[in-house]
Specification:
With 517 residues, the protein is mainly α. 45% of the residues lie in helices and 5% in strands. A five-stranded parallel sheet has the order 3-2-1-4-5, with helices on both faces. Strand 4, helix 4 and strand 5 form a beta-alpha-beta unit. Bound molecules: flavin-adenine dinucleotide (FAD), ligand DLZ and iron/sulfur cluster (SF4).
Length: 517
C-alpha cells in the first residue's frame, strides 16, 4: 500500500492531521503548475508569495521526516496540471491510493472529482480542518430562504461556537451584537498609523523562476523585500503585531480611506492577515482566540467595537461568504441580475484615470497587491457596477490583483456584495454612491481634477455623481420594491425634468467614453 497526499498552494495548515508524525507509507506531493498560475493574470506578489510559502512548507515537512515530492514550475517533468502530475506520479511510484484535502475552489474540486472517477486508484477527499463551518452549513441555517442575511448567520456563529459571549453563552459581551455605527469614522491624522509589518522576505530566486517560466503577471514587486508572511512563524508574528499595534483603532477607522500620497494609506489599521488566513498558515480559531484573549487582558469599553468588528469579519463575513459560494456554485459564477455588459476600462490595469480615488486605489493595488475592504467595495467596486461592467470582467480583475484572492471568497464579495449581480442574495441593496460618500470617508477628492460638488453637465463634475443617478434611473424597477433604495428613487423622481435630463446625459457621455474619464 502506497499513498500519495496532495497539498495545494492554499492548504499550508501546519496543524492538519496529515502534518503530525511522518508515515512511511505516505508521500506528500506539492506542485507549482501553469493551470493554477494562468487561470487569470495574477499579481506577481501573489504568485511569488504562494510559491515561497509552498516551498517553505515543503521544507518544514521534510525537516519533520515526511517524504515530500515537490514539483517546481520549471521542472522538465512538470505536466502543468494538478491531475496530469498526479497521473504521472501514480504510474511511476506505483501509488495505490491518492488523498486530497477539500479544495476551496469549485473549479479545482471538479477537476479532482472527475480525475478520481477514472484514476484507477482509490481516492479520498478529507477536510482541510481550517474553517469553523462545513461547506454546506449555511444551507441548513437558512433553509429554503432565498436571501441570506449575514447578521443572522453571524449571531448564530457567535452562539454556536461561543465566541466573545458572556458566561451564560447567550448574550454577547458588552450587551450588543453590532457596533457598526461606531466603526465609520474618516481618518484625519488623529492617531499615528503603525509602521508596516514587514518580514523583509527575499524572493529574488522565486521571481527569477517565475520570469524564466514566462508566466504573465500584473503589478510590481521588490523581490528582495516582500512584506507578506511566507511561514507560519512569520504569520504568527504578523498577528501579534496587529493585535498590539493596530487592533485598538481597527474599528473606528475600518471604513476610512486615505490617498496614497501617505505611505501608510494602503493598510491603515487593517490586519493584512487575509493572505496568511486564506493559505491556511493561520487558523481562524487561533486568530479569534488571540483577539478575545487580548480583550480580556487589555480591552477597554473603547476597544469593544474594534474587537467585535474584527471578530465579525472572521467568523461572520469570512465563513458566511464561503457558505454562499458552496451553496450557490456553479450557477453563481454566471449571475448578472443587472444585465451589465460593458468591458472593464483598460485603466483598471494601469491606474491611468483622472479620477483620483480610482487612480489612488488602482495604483496602490498594483504596487501592493492589496486594498482594504472599503476601497474594494466603495471605489473600484461601485464604479464598475455603476459603469455597467460585465461581472465576469470584474471578477477576473479582483481574482488576479489581490494577494488574498481565491474564488471562494472573491466571488461572493465581488459578484454578490459589490456588483449586486446575484440580485440580492448577499446584500439587501446595491452598494451605489455618489462622490459625497467618498469625500466624507477619504481625502481623495482634494487631489482630484474633478469637482465632487458638481453633478451635471460641467466637464469637471465628479463622474460618480451622474453615474449614481443614472444607476438609480436605470434600475428603478428593481429599486422601487426595496425599502432601503426607494428614497433615492423618490428623490430622482422629484427632480426637475431638466436637471434629471442633464444628469442622465452627463452619465451617458461617461458611459460612452469610459476609457477617457
Ligand atoms: P481586515 O480588515 O484586517 O479584516 C480581517 C479579516 O477579516 C480579513 O483578513 C479577512 O480574512 C476577513 N474579512 C474581512 N472582510 C471580509 C469579507 N467581506 N469577506 C471575507 N472575509 C473578510 N477577501 C479575501 O480574503 N479575498 C478576496 O479575494 C476578497 N475580495 C474582495 C472583493 C471585494 C469587491 C470586496 C468588497 C471584498 C473582498 N474581500 C476579499 C474581503 C475583504 O476586503 C478582505 O478580506 C480584506 O480587505 C483583507 O484585508 P485584511 O486582512 O487587512 O482585512
Ligand atoms: C493561486 C495559486 C497559484 C498562483 N499557483 C499555485 C500552484 O502553482 N500550485 C498550487 O497548488 N496552488 C496554486 N495556487 C493556489 C490554487 O489556485 C488553490 O489551491 C486552488 O485554487 C484551490 O483554492
Ligand atoms: Fe473620486 Fe469624484 Fe472625489 Fe474625484 S471628485 S476623487 S472622482 S469622488
Amino acid at each position: 500500500m502506497s499513498t500519495l497526499r496532495l497539498i495545494l498552494g492554499d492548504q499550508l495548515h501546519r496543524s492538519h492531521s496529515w502534518c503530525k508524525g511522518p508515515d512511511p507509507d505516505v508521500t506528500i506531493v506539492m506542485m507549482e503548475v501553469r493551470s493554477e498560475t494562468d487561470y487569470v493574470r495574477h499579481h506577481i506578489q501573489k504568485v511569488a508569495c504562494i510559491f515561497a510559502a509552498m516551498r517553505a512548507f515543503a521544507d518544514e515537512l521534510r525537516h519533520q521526516g515526511h517524504r515530500v515530492i515537490y514539483i517546481k514550475i520549471n521542472d522538465p517533468h512538470n505536466k502543468h496540471t494538478l491531475t496530469g502530475n498526479l497521473s504521472a506520479l501514480v504510474h511511476t511510484h506505483k501509488i495505490t491510493r491518492v488523498e486530497y484535502q477539500e479544495p476551496d475552489e469549485w473549479r479545482v474540486d471538479e477537476e479532482l472529482v472527475k480525475w478520481s472517477q477514472k484514476a484507477g486508484v482509490e481516492t479520498t477527499c478529507v477536510s482541510t480542518e481550517h474553517f469553523y463551518t462545513q461547506r454546506y452549513d449555511l444551507r441548513d441555517v437558512f433553509g429554503k430562504r432565498t436571501r441570506y442575511v449575514m447578521e443572522n448567520y453571524y449571531r448564530w456563529m457567535r452562539k454556536r461556537f461561543n465566541v466573545f459571549m458572556d458566561d451564560d453563552g447567550e448574550r454577547p459581551i458588552g450587551g450588543k451584537w453590532n457596533y457598526d455605527a461606531a466603526n465609520r469614522n474618516p481618518w484625519k491624522g488623529e492617531h499615528d498609523i503603525p509602521p508596516l509589518w514587514n518580514p523583509h522576505n527575499d524572493l529574488t530566486e522565486i521571481v527569477r523562476d517565475i520570469e524564466s517560466a514566462k508566466i504573465t503577471t500584473i503589478g510590481t514587486i521588490d523581490p528582495a523585500d516582500v512584506p507578506w508572511p511566507i511561514t507560519r512563524a512569520q504569520a504568527l508574528d504578523q498577528l501579534e503585531t496587529f493585535i498590539s499595534d493596530a487592533l485598538p483603532h481597527f474599528g473606528r477607522y475600518q471604513d476610512a480611506m486615505v490617498s496614497n500620497t501617505n505611505p501608510a494609506a494602503w493598510y491603515l489599521y487593517h490586519s493584512r492577515l487575509s493572505f496568511a488566513l486564506n493559505t491556511k498558515m493561520l487558523t481562524p480559531h487561533e486568530v479569534v482566540e488571540r483577539v478575545e484573549a487580548w480583550w480580556h487582558s487589555d480591552g477597554t469599553p473603547e476597544t469593544l467595537s474594534a474587537v467585535e468588528g474584527f471578530i465579525r469579519q472572521i467568523i461572520g463575513w469570512r465563513e458566511y461568504v464561503r457558505g454562499i459560494y458552496w451553496s450557490e456554485m456553479p450557477t453563481y459564477a454566471s449571475l448578472n441580475s443587472l444585465d451589465q455588459n460593458n468591458r472593464l476600462p483598460s485603466w483598471y490595469w494601469t491606474g491611468a484615470t483622472r479620477m483620483n480615488c480610482m487612480h489612488s486605489v488602482i495604483t496602490q493595488s498594483l504596487e501592493h497587491a492589496y486594498a482594504h475592504h472599503i476601497q474594494r467595495l466603495m471605489i473600484t467596486g461601485v464604479f464598475a457596477m455603476m459603469a455597467e461592467i460585465d461581472p465576469n470582467d470584474v471578477d477576473e480583475w479582483y481574482l488576479g490583483i489581490y494577494i488574498d484572492a481565491f474564488e471562494w471568497v472573491e466571488m461572493p464579495n465581488v459578484r454578490g456584495m459589490s456588483q449586486w449581480a446575484d440580485g440580492g442574495k448577499v446584500s439587501t441593496k446595491p452598494y451605489a454612491c455618489g462622490g459625497n460618500y467618498i469625500n466624507k470617508m477619504s481625502n481623495y477628492c482634494k487631489g482630484c481634477e474633478y469637482t465632487v460638488s458638481k453633478k451635471r453637465d460641467e466637464g469637471d463634475a465628479c463622474p460618480f455623481n451622474a453615474l449614481y443617478w443614472h444607476f438609480i434611473h436605470r434600475n428603478q424597477k428593481i429599486l422601487q420594491t426595496n425599502e432601503r433604495t426607494s428614497i433615492a428613487l423618490a428623490t430622482l423622481r422629484k427632480m426637475k425634468n431638466e436637471d434629471r435630463i442633464a444628469l442622465l446625459q452627463r452619465a451617458q457621455w461617461i458611459l460612452d467614453h469610459l476609457e477617457e474619464v
